[in-house]
Amino acid sequence: MKTGFTLRNVQFRNRVFVASGTFGYGDEVRNLVDVSHLGGIMTKSLSWKPRDGNPPPRIAETPSGMLNSIGLANIGVHAFIEKKLPYLRTLDTHIVVNIAASSVQEYCDVLGLLDEHEGIHGFEINVSCPNVKEGGLSFGTDCDRTAEITSRLRALTEKPLIIKLTPNVTHIGQFAAAVKDAGADAVSVMNTVIGMAVDARTRKPKVSTVTGGLSGPAIKPIALAKVYEVAQSVDIPIFGIGGIMTAEDAVEFLLVGASAVQIGTANFIDPSTGVTVAKGIESFARQQGLNDIGELVGALNARKDFSVLQSWL
Ligand code: RRO
Fold it and tell me: What atom of ligand 1 comes closest to residue 72's alpha carbon?
């Protein structure tokens, strides 16, 4: 069974990754997960300087989901290189570093510094954090800005450049087309959906910033629709993300057009979900008589003239 796929100059072992912010820098789950069964690890977003993030409470459970307002807490790029990268280099999987920033120059500085170091196989650019005042969504909801960041970063690296898009826009397909034209190799679809949870008795919002990013199975149908829209708009690979708990969920994302998937919230229940999903996709493909998991990509059986998306695109 062929499980892998190629992005630019990198051959990934399989199509299942762990999503940024749900697997730390790999070391938290040391001895818990055999990462050699994953396509790769997307690290927690890194900025130039360390950030403490937002005040607590910053996580709340919601029906079939999780609301977060972490606020880009991270150790900063220098501590990452010194303290985390040496361990990540020892892992038998690919490492994609996620970068977030509050200015175009900061994105360039972080990527430029990381690009010089061994053991990083690609970059995922976060233009879609819902929980910070500067940068974050103010970039990711502006198509020209998103394209500008992409072309500036493209000029700095030969490694795979993946732009992580937000669902909090009207037409995500237009953003995917803009970043493709600016040189992106792939897109990640999608970051969290802006949401809110309220405690009726205390009359308080359940996260300190009032609104946060909603993830988990609650958003899976939204994510499937966004991946489908992007797949109708561009021909670059899509990493599908949003509430994947099982191999069958992952196959649904492949069918609507994702070339690979990322496991996010499920890691907080069981950090080895990605390994289970990767094995499960393989047995599903075998049961279907396939030789290559890639045969599932975009293989949705749908009347193409029926989707309401067609009138938008
Ligand atoms: O750290 C966060 O609050 C966060 C980030 Br950077 C992101 O990209 N998505 C999200 O839901 N939370």
Answer: 1
The 3 state secondary structure assigned to the chain is CECCEEECCEEECCCEEECCCCCCCCHHHCCCCCHHHCCEEECCCECCCCECCCCCCCEEEECCEEEECCCCCECCHHHHHHHHHHHHHCCCCEEEEEECCCCHHHHHHHHHHHHCCCCCCEEEEECCCCCCCCCCHHHHCCHHHHHHHHHHHHCCCCCCEEEEECCCCCCHHHHHHHHHHCCCCEEEECCCEEEECEECCCCEECCCCCEEEEECHHHHHHHHHHHHHHHHHCCCCEEEECCCCCHHHHHHHHHCCCCEEEECHHHHCCCCHHHHHHHHHHHHHHHCCCCEHHHHCCCCCCCCCCCHHHHCC
**Domain span at residue 87?**
5-310
Res 303: pLDDT:
83
CATH at 127: 3.20.20.70
Choose one of 59, 69, 72, 164 to mutate for the ligand 1 pocket test, by most ligand atoms within 8 angstroms of C-beta.
72
Q: Is the pTM of this model over 0.90?
A: yes
Q: Please give the average pLDDT of every successive group of 10 residues along the chain, which has 313 residues.
A: 97 98 94 96 98 98 98 98 98 98 96 97 94 81 96 98 97 97 98 98 98 98 98 98 98 98 98 98 98 98 78 67
Ligand 1 pocket check for 127: Cβ under 6 Å: no
How many structural domains compose the chain? 1
Q: Active site includes 129?
A: yes
* pLDDT, position 189: 98
In this predicted structure, what is the pLDDT of residue 134? 76
Task: Look at residue 306 in the predicted model and tell me its pLDDT.
Answer: 76
Say what the pLDDT of residue 128 is: 87
Please tell me if the CB atom of residue 68 comes closer than 6 angstroms to any atom of ligand 1: yes
